[in-house]
Amino acid sequence: MSNAQETQLERLTFFSDAVFAIAITLLVIEIHVPHPEGAGDMAWLQALADLLPHFLGYILSFIVVGALWAAHHRVFGALSGYAPSLVWRNLVLLMSVAFMPFSSALMSTHATERVPEMFYSMNLFVAGLLQWRLFRGALRAPYLREGVTDDEVAMLRRRTLALPLMSVCSFVLAFWIPGPSNLPLVLMPLVVAWFAKGGFRRRSTIPPAEA
Fold first, then answer.
1. Helix, strand, or coil (residue 79)
2. What is the pLDDT of residue 141?
């Protein structure tokens, strides 16, 4: 690939990193400083306890956004160029990531309500699906760096299945147990590791480049 292609790839990567950083920062901004009704330690402890759903939502969403960024970082580090069509695929992924502070705040504020939980799971499902689509188009010859093997490409693609799978499980569970329905998302790092080691493995070859 030419130096111009590598420069454009760096600009795309830096822009993506900035969006991920802003989204992950906005997660904590949705947690507002409490104002206890009374005075004393117990009033403050109660006010902080009332924020527990927000703290848990922040941790969960931080893990999810962090996992999306880590996968993006890993895949784009394996590239030396890209097809122009991937710019828009990358942008729509970033759009879903930038939306997460809102869906996370909605879920945290109404942690035991069905619709907010399902809305949050749907946001994560869309992000996971868009990430899978982006990586499927990016991990192709001739855009791969020299030395990236077919097995590495297959592993990177398998890892993207974890978020869509876990978010679907969370969405379905929200019908019956909103709140605990987020448990599959908490287990996502384990599922990512399982897929990376070959969960549902199938032989894969690198398809030709897309226009």
1. strand
2. 84
